Amino acid sequence: MASFIVKLFVLISLFNVCFASRMLTSLVQNQQNQLLKYHKGPLLGGKISVNLIWYGKFKPSQRAIVADFITSLSAPTTAKSQPSVAAWWKTTEKYYHLVNSKKSSTLALYLGKQVLVESYSLGKSLTQKQIVQLASKGEQKNAINVVLTSSDVNVDGFCFNRCGSHGSKSTLVKGKNDKFAYIWVGNSETQCPGYCAWPFHQPIYGPQSPPLVAPNNDVGLDGMVMNLASLLAGTATNPFGNGYYQGPSTAPLEAASACPGIYAKGAYPGYAGDLLVDPTTGASYNAHGANGRKYLLPALYDPSTSKCSTLV
Q1: How far apart, in whole angstroms, are the C-alpha atoms of residue 231 and residue 229?
Q2: For residue range 14-38, what is the model confidence (pLDDT) as tens digits?
Q3: Which of 101, 124, 211, 228 has its CA 20 to 30 A from that of 199?
Q4: pTM greater than 0.85
Q5: 3-state helix, strand, coil in the chain (%, to 5)
Q6: In contact, 287 and 275? CB cutoff 8 Å
């Protein structure tokens, strides 16, 4: 019991004051009896564009990994493509059904525009305010604007207590007040892969196990997808800080962050779970995506069962 309490304290203490910061840790706690409370705020609904703002240097092949992931969220699935990214995303629909059981309002995400900011126009050390400034380069309505920073860019709090975060910004659209959601995710390849890209790198603390092979052969980008997936789930179900979450609003546990370190059945501290393995590359994954991609996605808290749900 003492060991459990210490681990739980360490986990909770990692959460940053910016709501919905995303951390990847090797800690796995018993989440079976958790309940994410609904705080009566709106969820994102309808058709929402996901716009990617690339800050710093990224190869076209790296940008394709993330773009294909966004496309995969709504891609048609076949028997051969299961388990799929789209099937993983469908768990979020259960939150919408709880809000309004008489109406099947759901969220449909699609890949919007991509903006390249390769000149480091704001420098290589960014504040949260500058992240929001970059996010504003995307659409201002019915949008989630995702800022992705390259491995040589420092962001306040990055690697110390978060791998990414999400929030919202008020804006004026055609004379009317509106809001758009935004996400920031950093590339941890050289700064803290053991913190933000586990299990594709040795963890910086906790049980030590051999790193897994990344499905897209890029530890930094595969780590970014894991973080982005978690933050997208949090954005959909708690976009403005008053949706579904547990704990204080300044450091909430959300749909994915309520299930830390769990990627498949059988997960325990230092072990991501019984994942699928590509026989050719040896890469570990749990979801098929568009264009033949494979991804590793975090478990999502299922409000209908009060348990962390995995694809495999």
Answers
A1: 5
A2: 333 334 444 443 334 444 445 789 9
A3: 124
A4: yes
A5: 25, 25, 50
A6: no
